[in-house]
Amino acid sequence: MIETKSERHILSILVENQPGVLARVAGLFSGRGFNIESLCVAETTDPLVSRMTLMTDGDMGVLEQIKKQLNKLVNVLKVIDFAGAGFVQREMALIKVRARPENRAEILRMVDIFRCRIVDVGTECYTVEMTGDEGKISAFLSLLKPMGIKEIARTGALALAREKNGGQM
Amino acid sequence: MRELTGSEILLETLKQEGVDTIFGYPGAAVIDIYDRLVKTDIKHILTRHEQGAVHAADGYARASGKVGVCLVTSGPGATNTVTGIATAYADSIPIVVFTGQVPRTLIGNDAFQEVDIVGITRPCTKHNYLVMDIADLTRVIKEAFHLAKSGRPGPVLVDLPKDIMSMKGRYDPGKDIKLRSYQPTYNPHLKQLAKVVTLIKGAKRPMIMAGGGVILSKASGELRKFAKKIVAPVTATLMGLGCFPPEDHLWLGMIGMHGTYRANMSTGACDLLIAIGVRFDDRVTGKTDAFASQAKIVHIDIDPTSIRKNVPVTIPVVGDCGLTLGILNELLEKEDLNGIRKLREPWLDKIEGWKNTKPLAYEQGEKIKPQHVIETLYRLTGGRAIVATEVGQNQMWAAQYYHVDRPNAFITSGGLGCMGFGLPAAIGAQIARPDSLVVDIAGDGSIQMNIQEMATAVQYKLPVKVVILNNRYLGMVRQWQELFYDRCYACTHMDYAPDFVKLAEAYGAVGLRATKPDEVERVLEKGLALDGPVLMDFHVEPEENVYPMVPAGAPITEMLLV
After folding, report:
1. How far off is chain A from B240, nearest CA to CA, in Å?
2. Rounded to the nearest 5 degrees, what angle is found at the Cα of B192, between the Cα atoms of B345 and B555?
3. Where are the domains of chain B?
4. Which of A100, B215, B224, B412 fits a 20 to 30 Å CA distance from B367?
5. Rounded Cα distance, B277 and B296, in Å
């Protein structure tokens, strides 16, 4: 295929909520050499259907194959590619940061500026809950880094298409 | 609604699906099924290895166009099917494989003869199932058959825990399948076809490349009409052989790594390539950048993932090959194609020139030439045999010199290239077509991979004829070593081989041998005339090569010739 520029895409994949479906999707990516940057799976309002939100990258040809191959899986109901469409993207992270007495005020200020929350306080650590897009999370992490990040847990990207007539938030 | 055991529900549903033959091998986890199976009219063929059972079901499917069915036990029985399943998957062959599983309470416990066969076969089946509730059993079996034979066909596996097979449940034969998102596209987009017609009318050097999809969709008749109508020469991939009559002046021969000179040269020179039911395998395209580089490409296939996977396409058409060709033929009916033959003349002349300067050829020598064996077989059988092949040089010579003229008559492992496929597949084909002459063209290497199935052929009185081109080498690998690895024949010399004649006799079959060129015809005549299974051992020129040959990764117009 003609090489084109690699792009990052977020795919929303509606699948039948059955055992083994995640393995089919994950196996498709590993078996065909496609990349998964992040993956989130949970039930939708219909208990028989789950939504997988998957971040991947590749050139146009690769992305076309990814979408076609996903659609070919019997348990996959629908594949939505958010590229080119308006969508809302959020990720949540829990960050355990070292909170020495001299840093505590600074951490609290940053938590305030980034509109995060402290959800657990220990003698030496704060656990911060934050949501945002990728840029916001990485900006926050780089500010916390000098103080010492002990642990981090991230959900990976979640996304939904914007309503057609909806305004920007 | 009746109460039946799981085994009875399985067998009832198989009958509803029209299954008349099962290829299989019993074991503890499927003992309940076998206990009921022998009390039905379904014929069971006991192979000598589970791999043989799957290949036989596959050969049955290829020769009959129906779904092949296979039944094996859990654990090693199940893992032995994997190579056969992958073979069917690579060539899109409709089979359903039933595997036994340990009782549900033991699943996940590393129980005796337990493997996660659904996990193991996920990437080499079209779909697979583990049945965990007897209420799902009928639906799952129906879905398995529907999936195997519809759209782009393929193998489906159903894993059956032992306790479900012995317990009772309600049997509802009318149970509907529910596949919410599985809807193969059979009908092509008419706007796309209109564009195809325009391209055809303007093309000076069109050609058609037909593949296994044409055989699977039973489209050979429409293809023949189409080619004549648009006056375009036709090549076929290995999987497409039999879709076009070899004596027709539009026939180019096979394309690809061991394709004919004129087919490969035409691909390089054509200005329109109409690819039907193919997937542009690397053995067909050679270097993809150079493949059909002057041509606009029309690609017709039922599987959207095949389109634009390996080569860029001008007009993609997703649809059933047979339906699409039928509609194209109707559309062309309304067109004025009178001038078309005139327009194509220089192109056809050019191809005729290629055909005459570089025909398929070999030189006779003191030893038997393998090509000579196949040519003689072709002549003696009048081209009417169903030919199964093993994999390697034997397969390529069979493709080049046995000019199959009908679909479903050339049975070969194209995509996976699975040695050991031919004999069990020939057995399956013989069951499907009891009145046909079935010949397995083999090498001395590959025949030994499933030679145990000779016992199956003898037990069921299947008159399969095996032609061994015995060169004491793993010939195709040796050929690569000769041409590209300085003749370092690393581990390809089979210094010791059994006496195939005695081996045939030990199995209760007939064994024959030819060691000189003038014995070839007599041995073939004698072997083909016998009623039962016959194994014919031809001691051929050990270092004969398959030509033409396109080195891997080279453009297909750059061939090594004799």
Report:
1. 24
2. 55
3. 2-171, 190-357, 370-539
4. B412
5. 17
Name which of A24, A64, A68 is nearest B122 (Cβ-Cβ).
Answer: A24
Chain B CB within 8 Å of residue A3 CB: no
Q: What is the fold, at CATH topology level, of the domain defined by B370-539?
A: Rossmann fold (3.40.50)
Q: Cβ contact (<8 Å) for A23 and B122?
A: yes
Are A75 and B118 in contact (CB < 8 Å)?
no
Q: B308 and A1: CB-CB below 8 Å?
A: yes
- Distance (Å, rounded) from C-alpha B84 to C-alpha B25? 14
For Cα atoms B529, B400, B240, give the angle at the middle one, nearest 5 degrees: 100
Same domain flag for A66 and A94: no
CATH number for region B190-357: 3.40.50.1220
Kind and range of the H or E run holding A5: none
Does residue B488 register a pLDDT over 70? yes
Q: How far is it, in rounded angstroms, from Cα B102 to Cα B75?
A: 9
Give yes or no for residue B273 having a pLDDT over 70: yes
Cβ B305–A69 below 8 Å, yes or no? Answer: yes
Task: Looking at the complex, report in whole angstroms how far the Cα of residue B306 sits from the nearest Cα belonging to chain A.
Answer: 9
Host domain of residue A32: 7-81
Looking at the structure, do residues A48 and A111 belong to the same domain, yes or no?
no
Question: Over the stretch B329-373, which tens digit does the pLDDT of each residue have?
Answer: 999 999 999 889 999 999 999 999 999 988 898 999 999 999 999
Tell me which residues of B are annotated as active site.
50, 112-113, 162, 476
> If you count residue pairs, one on A and one on B, with CB atoms under 8 Å apart, how many are there?
43
CA-CA distance, B269 to B262, in Å (whole number)? 10
CATH assignment at residue A70:
3.30.70.260
Q: Do B303 and A72 touch (CB under 8 A)?
A: yes
Arithmetic mean of pLDDT, B287-309:
97
Number of domains in chain A: 2
- DSSP category for residue B116: -
The three-point CA angle B156-B458-B38 to 5° equals 55
CB of B192 within 8 A of CB of B25?
Answer: no
Q: A135 and A102: one domain?
A: yes
Task: State which of A81, A108, A143 marks the end of a domain.
Answer: A81
Looking at chain A, which residue has its C-alpha nearest residue B288? A1
pLDDT digits (tens, 9 = 90+) for B395-408: 999 999 999 999 99
SS3 B344: helix
Two domains, one topology: B190-357 and B370-539: yes
Whether A64 maps to a domain, the answer reads yes
Confidence of residue B292 (pLDDT cuts 50, 70, 90): very high
Q: In terms of CA atoms, which chain A residue is nearest residue B132? A: A19
